[in-house]
Specification:
Length: about 325
């Protein structure tokens, strides 16, 4: 049975449903405690988390430096380390602010948007559907909420083994319909676009299905890239834009950016489409490079004959 949309409740913004396991119970308790903090303290907590991740040997720290050196080969060793340090302080904020963005009422969260650049790109005056791409950049949870507040939205998401019910409720509290990353979900994306609605997708995850992906340059490094966006755009004639929320200094709120997708993202040639997609992600990242999720193993799968990148000392 289709999950009903969560209704706003004073001081909450999600349904009061009991967690199913002890782990869920603990996680929800932590989220609720953090959500009570003002955003300034939430971000200070995130800075502490990022600092600890830099000090304690871990894979995320190693992977981030590998990615930074690959994508910005012009940076000297000291500058690459300084860049990683700044990015991890933002990485910590990404984790700590999730509770605030999830559990506060939608209107309270949306009131944190201080400025919108390129908002006219969201207009759908021609009746066509629109594919809105939000990379793992800045506050992507806020970006998704902002999009769903603009009109009917269907969002692609990966179901989780725990707290999946909470993710569905908080991401759908402004009216978005969440659909899983399977054939049925993709069918619903097509239907939404043909109705002239918004479709939201995180475009920079490494796809699992090889026939639905291709290697294309991402900061000049071959990266396995999804072809779904290219196929949706070609088959429906939908426009494609990028939307992301940049975190402002000193917990000053967020700046929403909308950018047009590069030409060729709807090309009949799949590689051309994948290359344009990655170029659009690069343009978004260059707006605020420290706020990108550099710890993600974006180059985990390599073209045949290339060595695994994510190995070595932590």
């Amino acid at each position: 049975m289709k999950r009903r949309v969560a209704t706003e409740r004073a001081g909450k913004g999600y349904e009061q449903r009991a967690p199913g396991t002890l782990r869920e119970c603990f996680a929800l308790s932590v989220l609720r405690a953090i959500a009570r903090l003002p955003l300034s303290l939430t971000h200070r907590l995130g800075i502490c988390i990022g600092w600890l991740m830099l000090k304690i040997p871990n894979k995320q720290r190693r992977n981030a430096l590998i990615n930074v050196r690959l994508c910005f080969p012009h940076l000297e060793a000291a500058r690459a380390l300084a860049f990683r340090r700044r990015s991890f302080l933002e990485y910590g904020k990404t984790y700590s602010e999730v509770a605030y963005l999830w559990l506060r009422p939608a209107q309270k969260v949306l009131s944190l948007v201080r400025e919108v650049s390129g908002g006219e790109l969201l207009h759908r005056d021609d009746g066509r559907g629109m594919i809105v791409l939000s990379p793992h950049l800045g506050a992507w949870e806020l970006a998704g909420l902002y999009l769903s507040a603009q009109g009917p939205t269907t969002t692609l998401y990966k179901p989780q083994p725990e707290l999946d019910w909470l993710i569905c409720e908080v991401r759908g509290r402004a009216g978005a319909e969440l659909v899983p990353t399977d054939r049925q979900g993709i069918r619903k994306l097509m239907q939404a676009l043909r109705r002239g609605e918004y479709v939201g997708i995180l475009p920079d995850q490494e796809p699992r299905v090889t026939p639905g992906s291709a290697f294309a340059p991402f900061f000049e490094v071959p990266a396995l890239t999804m072809l779904l966006i290219n196929r949706l755009a070609r088959r429906t004639g939908a426009r494609v834009i990028f939307l992301f929320a940049v975190r402002l200094p000193h917990a000053g709120g967020f700046h929403i950016h909308c950018l047009p997708a590069p030409a060729g993202i709807d090309s009949e040639d799949a590689i051309t489409g994948a290359t344009a997609l990655n170029r659009g992600i690069e343009e978004a990242i260059n707006t605020c490079p420290e706020q990108y999720l550099w710890a993600y193993k974006r180059f985990r799968r390599r073209p045949q004959g290339m060595l695994n990148l994510y190995q070595g000392p932590l």
